[in-house]
Amino acid sequence: MPLQLIIAAWLAARARASATLCAAFPGACDGSFAGGAIVVDGNATIGGTIPTELGQLQGLQEVTLLRCSLSGTVPSEVGRLTALRTLIVAYAPFSGRGQR
Q1: pTM of this prediction?
Q2: What does the pLDDT average to over 1-22?
Q3: In order of start, what are the domains of the chain with their CATH numbers?
C-alpha cells in the first residue's frame, strides 16, 4: 500500500472522534480493499475490535496494529490470510493469548 494511502487513512481517522478499523480503511470490511498493508501506529482514535472480515482480504501482506484503542482478540479468520507475512499487534488493550 502506498505510504500516501496509509497517511490519508490515518488523517481521516484522526479527524473523527472515534473510528473503527473499517472506517479508517475503506473496503477493509467489504472485501474491496486493494492495499497490501493495514498499518495503525500511534492512533488512539481507532478503536473497537478487529473485524472478522479482515480474513477475506487475500492480498493482505502486512497488518500492524500498534498503540491504538483496538481491543478484544485477534479473530481466527486472520489465519486465512495466505499472503500475510507480517502481523504485529502490541501496545493496545487486546485480550487473549498469543499463538505461534
Answers
A1: 0.72
A2: 56
A3: 3-90 (3.80.10.10)
Length of the chain: 100
The CA-based angle 36-37-39, given to 5 degrees, is: 170
Q: Are 30 and 51 in contact (CB under 8 A)?
A: no
Residues 37-70: b if buried by 16+ CB within 10 A, e if exposed: bbbbeebebbbbebbebbbbbeebebbbbeebeb
DSSP string, 30-79: TT----SEEEEES-TTEEEE--GGGGG-TT--EEEEESSEEEB---GGGG
Q: What pLDDT is stored for residue 35 in this prediction? A: 77
Which single residue is written with the C-alpha cell 488493550?
Answer: 93
